[in-house]
Amino acid sequence: xxxxxxxxxxxxxxxxxxxxxxxxxxxxxxxxxxxxxxxxxxxxxxxxxxxxxxxxxxxxxxxxxxxxxxxxxxxxxxxxxxxxxxxxxxxxxxxxxxxxxxxxxxxxxxxxxxxxxxxxxxxxxxxxxxxxxxxxxxxxxxxxxxxxxxxxxxxxxxxxxxxxxxxxxxxxxxxxxxxxxxxxxxxxxxxxxxxxxxxxxxxxxxxx
Length: 208
Ligand SMILES: [Zn+2]
Hints:
208 residues; 2 domains; binds zinc ion; mainly alpha
């Protein structure tokens, strides 16, 4: 399944969560976007073994890196105190500049390191954890750990910290549902998927 489909399904799950929480229109919009992003996260692993095989991957990774950089700038100015604003904003701008100019395969690894640094300076646990996720995703093969129960649990941890940080109801469930929707869409539950997901890694590498 391609990225657009994953994002659309994730966005739909965000909409359902927003409705069940009777969120305000602006929160609903935020959760729809968050669901869409969460639905794309598991495929951050395309920088692994597939790297170089897909012509689009480099472009997509660059876009994701730039997006994270932009979010980091906004987030730093919105949430950060005094110097944090400028350090976080600087890292964000640095990520945008570096990801725009670097034409090589380690971009996702660099993005992970940048996000960890951003999380460290902003003292946001979820951002540090997300950076570690991106870093790991840049090394593992496609459709492995990010597409497993272990991946769901780890992303759930990020989501729970994010909900506490933002203090918005529905963030945790939106992230989790968006992420899980991706694994379902990639699984053999759908008859047109020839490959499945190795849900039980590292215990079993059977594709489901
Ligand atoms: Zn996938």
